[in-house]
Every structure is written in C-alpha cells, then in structure tokens.
C-alpha cells in the first residue's frame, strides 16, 4: 500500500504552489471578477508554457505524457489559487473527451492545440435548470450540423472549440459527444451572469453549426464516463480550495483579538475549524481514491469519482461559508477575499452537477456492485 | 389558547388594511428580491421620509410610543398587527427602524427634554433620521472594545476614531456614538455615549460594499469631531449602561412573525414543482420533500415562537432574549435552503440574473445570506446570549476584566 | 391573539408538576425497567383518582369534561416525569378513538371505564418493521371475529381492551378500527423486549377473537385522524421530556468542574445547550399550534399535528443524546438516569410512526392546501 | 499512488491468512452484534490468553515491537495487514490491546529492565494482562485532575483513592496508575506514575454497568495500597510526562481501517432493501438513498484516511493526532445511522431482541453508541485536540495553571 503522492509528485506540487503564489494571488481572480475579461490571459499563457495543459496528454499528441495523478496534483493547486483560467473546461473536459472518445484523426488535430494552449476547449451539456441527464438533451447533431441551445457553459465565450452533448437519434440514450468549432458560422454566444464572476459562463446557441461526432459518437455512457473523470479531477480543485479556506480562517483566528485574546482560543471557533478540518481530510482521502481509480484505469472509477465529488462538495461549502463566518464583518465585504472562495466553491459544485445527483449515481453504482 | 384576533384586534387590523390600501400599492406577487439596489439613494430616502410622515400623521408610526414621547400610545400588539399588514404593501423599509427603535428612545430616556422632545417629534414624522455608531473594526462581537476616543477640551469633547457597520450613515441626520473616555479604567467602565450631528464636516461616511454587491452599511470616520458636553447621553463613563438600554429597546421591536428570511416553503415548493429531475418533478422526489418539510417545520416553529412573544407583549410582559433564536435559525435555514435551491437547478444553478430561473432570486439569497449570519450578532454571539441570559450558564473565562482597557491584549 | 395557556391551565400544570415530582421521580421509571412490572400500578391509580384519564371525556361519559388543551398540559408533565404508565395508550389512543369514532353505545359502555381507570386501553396497528400504512394491514375483522398479529403494541400486556386496525374489505383503504376485549378467547399476548423497558410492549395474536367495528368502522382516514390527535398530544410529552433533558444537562454543567471551572462555562457545552434550547423552543411552539388545532377542532389539525410531531421528535432526540454527552462518563452508565430519557425519547418517536413518515404526511397536506 | 499491496506485503498477507485459517474459525456472515455479553468471564479470559500465546509463538503478537523488547521486530505495516486479516476471523479481542499497546511499552521505557523485560515477555505471550488506571470520577476530560493520593511512608508509598473507566480491571494482573504526590504543586507538576499488582487485596474492582447493559469497565478503589518506590515509573512528580508517553503509544496503535463503528453501508442497504415503505422497498426511496450515500462517503473517507496513516507508518513516519478524527466521525455517523435504521422500521423500530428485525442489532448499536461518543475522549475533547495539536490554535483561557492543585476550584 502506498496511498500518497510520490516524492516527485510532491516536488511538482511544491513548485506549482510557488508558481501560483507568485503569479496568481486572489487579486487575479478579483481582477477578472471586476472586469469584462473572461479569464486571466497572461496567467493562462504562463500555465500553457509550463506544459500544465498537456500534463496527461501523450507526448505523441504534443503533451507532457505524465499521468492523471500529476494532473490531480495541479488541480489541487489551481483550486487553492482559485485561478481565473479555463483549466477545468479545457483540460478536464475538452482534452479528456478527446482522449477517451476522439478518433485518431481528431486527437491528432486537436490535442496538440489544446495541450499547447493554442486553443481553449470547453464542454456543454445543460440546457435548463433541471437534472442534466440524457432526457434533457434537445440539442441535436444531424448530418454534420448542430442545432440547439446550451446554458451555463463555462468559458463559453473564451473557448475556441466545444464538446457538446447532442442527440444523435430518437432513443432515450441516443446522445453523444459532438465537436464543434465555436468560431464557425451558426454559433452564437452570449455571456451569462453567474455566482462566480471570476470565471465566465455563456449561453451557446447553435443553428446548424458545422460539427462532427467525437469518435464513433458513442452514447450516454461516454458522457457519464467523461463526467466521472472530470469529477475526480475537480475534487482536487475543491479540496485545494477547502484547505485554503481553512488556512485563511485559522490565520485570522490567530491574529484577530476579541475579549482580550485571539478568537482562535474560543471553543466556538476552535470546534468550528475542527469540523472544517475533518470534512477536508475526509474529502482529501476520498479524492485520493478517485485519483488512484482515474490513473490506474480502474473500473471503480465510477464509484470513486462519485464519492470524491460528494465529499469534496460538502467540504468546500462548509469551509467556504465558515471561513466567512470566522472573519465576521470583514468576511462578507466585497473587498475581503472570503467571498471569492464561497462563490468559486459553489460554482465548482454545480458545474459538473449537484451533489444530490452524484449521491444518486453513487448508490446506483453500489447497487450494481452488490448485484454483481 | 386562541389563535385568532380578538374582536378589537380584528377591528384594528381592518382599519389598518383599509388605510394602507388607500395609501400604498400592494406588493407584487411572488417572493421579493434579496436585492434592493436603489436603497439609500436621495430619491429613495425622500420617498421613505414621505411615507413616514404619512404614517405618523395617521398615528401608525411607533404605535406603542407613549404620549409623553409624542407617540400614539397604542398597544404593542397593534404595532405587530400594523407590521403584518404593512408587509403586504410595497412601501419603503429599513430607514427608520434603528433610529426610532433604538436611538431616539435612548435619547428620550437620558437627555434634556428640551432637546429630546422636539428631536423625537422630527424623527417620528420623518424629517430626520438617526443612526447608531457602536461597532468598530476592533469592536464587533466584543462590543465594549470601543477604541474611538472622546477627549475633554474645556466645555467640549473632541472625538477621533472609526466606526463601522453603520446602517445608512450617509443619509442620517443624527447618530448616537459610543466612545472611550477613560482608557485607564477596565473595558466596560471607561465608555461614554454622545449624540452627534452626522452632517458635521468632521464626520466622513464611506459606503461598505458587501459581497452581494449591495451597500447597506458605512464606515464612519470621526476626525476631530467637536461636540458639547450637553450632547453627552447619560453619565460620564456610564456609556456601557446606556448601550445596554439601547440594545434592550431593540429587543422590544418585534416583527410580524413571518418565519424567517430567504425563500419560504411556498417558494421552495414552487421551485420543486417546476424543476424537472431525472424521474419527474423535483416535488415528487422524497429527498426533496423531506428537506422542504424539515425547513417548513423550523420556519413554522419560528413563526409560532414569535406569536408566543407577541402574546407575552400583549399581556404587558417584556420579551426576553429568547427572541435571539429568530435570526439564528432563520439565517442558517435560509443558507441551507438557498444552497439546496441552487442544487435543484443542477448545472444551471450557478446562473444569475436573466438567464437564471426565478430571476436568480435564489442565487441572490445565496450571496446575501452569509452576511445575515454575522450582522446584528454572529451565530456564536447569539448562542452565548442564549446560554448565558436564557439558560443561566456562566460566562467564559475572561482575561479582559479588571484590567485597564489600555492593557487588554488587542493583537496586531 | 392569545397563543399561550390560560392562567387556569398554568395553575393546573403547576399542580400536576408538583404531584409528579412527588409521586414520580425517575426512580419509578427505573423500577419498572428493572422489574417484570408492565407499569407503575400505584401511580396509575393515583392519576386515575385525580381524574386525569378523563380530562377530555365529557362528564356524561364519566369524564371531567375539560378540553384537549388541558390534556396537552398533562401530557407535557407526563413527559417530564417519563411516567411509567399506559397514559398515551389508554388516553390519547383508546379513549380518543372512542371519542371520535365510537357509537353512542360503545361510548357509553367503555368511556366511563377508561376515564376512571377501571380498564386500560391501547391501540394496535403495526404488523412488522415497515411503514405502518393501510397496505401493511393484514389483520382482518370478519363477522365479529378478529384475526391477525400486531407487534410493538404499547401496554399490550397490561391493557384490557384494544382498538385494533383491521382490514374490513378487499379495497386498499378498506381498513378500520375494531374494538376487542383482550381478556377474551382467541387473544394471545406475549411481552416483547424494547429499547424502553420502562414501558411495556407486546405482540398480540388474534385468532378469531370476538371484536366489533368501532362506530361504523370507517376507513383509513379515521386511523389517520386518530394518529394526528395522538401525535398532537404526544408532542407535549416529547416537549416535556426535552425540557427535562435540558434542565438536567444545565444543572450538571453548572456543578461539574473541569480545568478549574464549571463545564457550563465552556463554549462547547454552552453552544450545545443553546442548540438544544432552540430545538426545544421550536418544538414547543409547533406543539402549541397542534394544541390549538386539536382543541378548536380546526381542519388545520392534520398539518399542525405533523409539524408538531416532526419538531418534537427532532428536539427529543437532540436533547436526550446531548444530555448524555454533557454528563460524560456518568451519562452512559446504567445507574445514571440519562439513558432513561434517551430510551423514552426514541420510543415516543417511533410509537406513532417515525419522523420520516410524518414529514411525508406534512408535505402531502401542504400540497393539498396549495391545491385547494 | 498504489492501492495494492507491494509484493512483500502480499506475501506477508498470504502467510498471515493461511496461518489464521489453520488456527481460528472464520467469522460468521452478517454484521457482528454490538453485544458481547460473555466478555471478561473466566472462560473468555482463558481463551483470550490462549489465543495470545498462539499468536506470540508464531510471531504475530505486537509485530513491530523491537527485538530488545522481546518482540518480532517487524514493520508497522505488517501489523496493519495482520489486523485486517485477523478481523475476518472469530478470535478473542479487547483483552491485550491496552496493556501491550500502552502500559507495557511505558514500563519498558521507564523501568528497570530486570523487572520490565520478564514482565513484557509474560504479557506478550498472554500469561498476564495489564490495565491503565488514569481516569477518576473528577478527572475525565480533565485528565490531569487526578486526586488519588500516593503518600511516602519510609521506603514505600501508600495509595488511596478511586479510579474509574478501567477496562477489564477485574481480570488484569498489573496496572499502571497515575497518582498525586504533591498537591501543593500546580496540577500537571505534582503527579507520579506507579505500577501496581491488581491482585493485591487493597485493590477493589467493581464493575460499571453501562446503559447498554454491558459491563466493560470497572471502578477501582485503592484502600491503603502499599507499593515500593521501585514500582515508580519515571521521576517523582514527573507522572504527567509519563502519561503523555503512554498516550503517544496509543496513537501508534492503528487499526485496520474498516471505516467506522456500527452498521456499515452494506447493512444499511440490506435493511433498506428488505424494508417495505408505503411506496415500495426503502432502497427505492430517494431520501433513504441520499442518506445512505452520505454516510457511505464519510465511512469511505475514514477508511482512506486510515490508509493514508498506514502509508505514513510504512514510510517510517509517526502518525499525528490526525487520527483523532476516526472516532469522532465514526461514533457520530453510527449514532445517525442507527437512529435512521430504527426509523426505517417505523413503529416496530422500538423492538429489541427476537421480535426485532436483524435480531435487534440496530437497536443494540443505538443503545451502545452514546458511550462511544464519550469513552476514550469525548467529541469535545477530540475537537480540542484537532484544533490545538493539528491546527495550532491556542488553548482556551485557563484558570487552573500556575496555582497549587489544592487551590484549583473543583466544584461541589
């Protein structure tokens, strides 16, 4: 048993953390939030130059050829830094989609561009406020033409290409992944307000836009698998964010005095932060299981990813809201940074589907396992 | 046990409703927004003052204020009934509550009637608005930790320091301010209260932008503000006792008992009815149903607790600190509810504004609610209050008693 | 608005409390728990002599002719005293069943005996570990003969008569109330172990026992209404119990020292007990709504009773478990009294059906109201 | 990151399993009962000693104990593997853990090898059992608040007082006891540790009946117990440091990582599958499914946290107080789960024993679990430990430091 990152991976983490502390203090997320920018393009360029975008992409396709454990390491740091870049859209979703479902030609064409940062990719599934399952997919791909409307598409304005979940036939599960160039005709994109303006979201409308099936256009199970992979990776962003919230709260509790002593000496604060610590540790452990399942190609990924996501979502909500609470009045000011994390935590928890959806997935997977 | 109005109460309720219907528009259908972006603008302040004047002229402002304060001298239960009815109408809110509820009664209790009575009259009919300047950057939960100094200079006092979390400071005319007048005395024993002119150039107000984007509060800087000793409220170094009185008046201000903040049961059920889950409308999902039931029971419990408080009021009893449970429960419930409402909307739950369901009102609440768990007493302070004042448990171990305030560790 | 008990009712409460403090300290519950007795017969006799059993029974039927508000007052005191007597079975269930559904002849025959304590009554619904709804009722009443098996019948060994939910026809909701004399032939009763041995429970087996329909034997809706009434009354027992738990915990926290000061001066204990206080107050307020609806015959009873039960169940679990926790080591000894309350709290919370069942009832009733 | 055994670990696991299969029966199917009524009976103690002897002979007792302690000198990870495999078999448990895990290592660390080594050998091969006598009626969470006195009398010490919550005192041969030797010193500075003969007539053990009906603990009365100064463990008045060492050994004893106490996910799913709700099996109810999923995630989180600890162990690192989260989470989860399991059974959920589903095992847990939230450190103490030792937050304000112990307020 070796249930930890390797020394090399830990060194990679330390380097990534140093880089982001220098290049991505919370002021960067704030700058995007308070401007019309879709993301921090300078930071994105630097991240691309470091090779992060191609971490899990084979060298043959322009990547670094490391594994998904390394990508988990970076995800945690991106999460700590609440980096205002399209990392999850382009890397965990668009790149992963190509890796698992793209044809050789598609991989050869797109992976190098995504890995180098020449292009930004994203993923579009939801069409309205409702469970984002196969039955809700109205968008359709017919004869190379994509039509439909997608909402809450992360980085939808900045992205160059999108992997779009679209109907491919009349059956309930006849849905698959379509690859569309967002710069082409028949694509309309409108920025959409969100609870986390340090990231950007868009409504995409396709009116017969040129698109192609990804690989053989396989059905809903590929979508599920893609979401599992992205969930396992995102769990590390959530864990990173949760830990920063705890660090911030702890730091404040040590330096803020009331009644003549640090507020961190009061049990109300101590036990609150102990609760946060417990949730964070459970989330981290569940995330490790996801990392192992993802990188080892285990059939347990579906179960592990659901567990990682549920645990990380719970931790991130708790840590981000109790960080505000610990900061008292300063905690809920605009100028304080606490709300950046509260916003990001909730956005990350919704982007791939809410915890309630993942709890149901988890139980189904446990039932299947028990039946097997 | 009688749930209904007494005949007199029913009669009063009818009068109030009829008068309101003549003088104000009904609220629009659907839950109101958590945003109120126009709050505090000159037009909004003018409208609030006009509405206050209208209410006062009819005798519906500060109904229980005694005649000697220039009030209508009605029963507390009438105020409750008025609030319940007014809540159905679209009228300005959150301009006079603090001034008339806390500040002016304090001034009437402690100050020379020659000043207090005309000031109260002007405040009651909406000419002037009062605010309260207690909190400071280093005196929040620890409300006696005030560092703003008032130093004697001949007949006057000179005030320097910074206050924070003052509601509507920029449109207020007067404020009551807690200052430190003896840093050598223990914390609670060196404080003095004054009233001040908020329009004095030595008073500088800066808006605080909250995380929700709204600005309901101000920082207030006092730069050599000169006040007369006649502006002192209560004894020299007796300010803590005055502040306690002010906060006691706050407790007397009972709402209409609507069971909490944020989305209510109806809004949650409406959202669940409209939202399609994998297997049908969310309202058919047992997990959703259980949560809504749990929150409903809590909200009803709060509503009926308020009814019990109102009953005590109507029997002439003073409501105790039991009322502290209201904000504690409603803020936490609203946080859970809004979080859950976003989850119901799944991936699209992060949208705000036009693209969002119900105009993003659940998202607005989600962003406004962390402040509600803090403003007006954090969860933690409210639990202390319940534990100590209701249950009679001892205070925590103290390191800041019986030492000169200047020697109390302040960090930094 | 007068949302409180009257001065007379408060005086009645004070008297009842004094009586029970004298006649029913926790040692009485313990004595039943540690013996084979089904209940404290001496206490039961005294309670009967005080007229409590007939509080809400009209004088014409041998009762005191007060209302249900007065019965709520007594229920709270019974709950505080965790009295080991068949009060809820005989009064809230058997007596109430006769009051709402009995024929005039049945009322005339049985109510005076129940009101005087000459007979003990009970109620039997559940047949197995499952939702106790109409579909689970297998027991049947045919031609005056009752057959079937009922489990977890409170006071089933001590009771003389039982109101039994039985199938009266083939339809799903063709179930109604049957009145059976438990001393008659064809009735077998076996004591059953329970989590609360300070009360007694039994398995009843009917094999063609002589029984008659209560009144016109109306269907499931009467059963539901009976449960609502009993739930509204039981909520007061639960509230009384919750308040005693808080009192015990507070008292202990004031007198137990650790680290040189009362443990009640630590925020961990203070905030725990504040949470209990909040839950208790919400439960009390919801219970008052139930009392009002019950005593005024309001159509809101169904909603009010469900709310009262859910709230009281939550409070009783919290208060009884955190009372143990506050007492530390002593809290979980057999000789300490804390567990008597923990046991009784859970038994009361299950006897009329679990909170999850009542939450569902509540939502159905809200839906019905919204639709109306 | 590797979830699987290394080749050496796999090899060792195989050896262990093969040996166990030859020497012990497999556990019966289904979750084990929370009751263990025979625990501590003479026959059960004899069986436990015999099993310990068998393990020791094979080198599977206290695997990481170094050779100089008379142990096998194996790797900590091997102990973990052994525990995981042994958990599959029906063998005696809870007799030697405290003695070999905490007491004997303390004795080996501090005492004369002439006594310690043979004593350790006898303990290791199951001849003798040790217990720990720290807690007292007035020294529970406040573990340094010990009042049992040891008074010097010539070459000897005379001990008087009462200990409590001693596991298996009545079948133990030796104990280590924390006593107060200087009541004039501050609390932590007047304590001394001794080892004592539990069979001395001056040691009186009385069983404590727990609320569940079981009796796993004793009260121990010391009535003029005379011990030699050579039985002292560590320095005079240095007992607190010794106790800290003892508790540190406890932390090193890592379990097999099964994710918690009480019913697990499989038991909950089985119950839900069998239990008929109004609309079908409980396992089809979304509210039930969500709760089971939430608890499963917590239990898995604990399990994988233990794996992380084991990994640290196998790399030669000392696990930190992070391990405190285990009992905190699992006890509270078990309380919620058992409460919910009773609710699923609705009105029949209050039955125990034969009449109950699953032989009443959920009810047994429901009654056993309040003790688990207290024994071995209350929830509150564990949170303090996490806050102070893991997060580095300051201790609470203290009134019991730097004053003679006899002057510390003790209530009553």
What's the gist of this structure?
The complex is a heterotetramer, with two copies of chain A (about 375 residues) and two copies of chain B (about 400 residues). Chain A is of the alpha+beta class. Chain A is built from eleven helices and nine strands.
Strand order of the largest sheet of chain B: 1-4-5-8
The helix-and-strand class of chain B reads: alpha+beta
Number of helices of chain A: 11
What is the string of helix and strand elements of chain B?
Answer: HHHHHEEEEEEEEHHEEHHHH
* Share in β-strands of chain A: 5-15%
Question: For the residues shown, what is the average pLDDT of chain A?
Answer: 96
Characterize the overall form of chain B: globular
Q: What's the shape of chain A?
A: globular
* Rg for CA atoms of chain B: 23 Å
What pattern of helices and strands is seen along the backbone of chain A? HHHHHHEEEEEEEHEEHHHH
Mean pLDDT of chain B: 91
Q: What gyration radius of chain A follows from the Cα positions, in whole Å?
A: 20 Å
The low-confidence parts of chain B are none
Beta-strand content estimate of chain B: 5-15%
Low-confidence stretches of chain A: none
SSE blueprint and pairings:
The complex is a heterotetramer, with two copies of chain A (372 residues) and two copies of chain B (412 residues).
Chain A: H1 7-23, H2 26-33, H3 41-49, H4 68-80, H5 87-101, H6 104-116, E1 121-124, E2 140-142, E3 145-154, E4 161-167, E5 175-181, E6 187-192, E7 201-213, H7 220-255, E8 257-258, E9 261-262, H8 267-296, H9 301-327, H10 338-351, H11 355-371
Parallel strand pairs in A: 1-4
Antiparallel strand pairs in A: 2-3, 3-7, 4-5, 5-7, 6-7, 8-9
Chain B: H1 7-23, H2 42-58, H3 76-86, H4 97-110, H5 113-124, E1 130-133, E2 149-153, E3 156-167, E4 174-180, E5 191-197, E6 203-208, E7 217-228, E8 232-233, H6 239-252, H7 265-274, E9 276-277, E10 280-281, H8 286-314, H9 325-344, H10 361-372, H11 379-390
Parallel strand pairs in B: 1-4
Antiparallel strand pairs in B: 2-3, 3-7, 4-5, 5-8, 6-7, 9-10
Helix pairs in contact in B: 1-3, 4-5, 4-6, 7-8, 8-9, 9-10
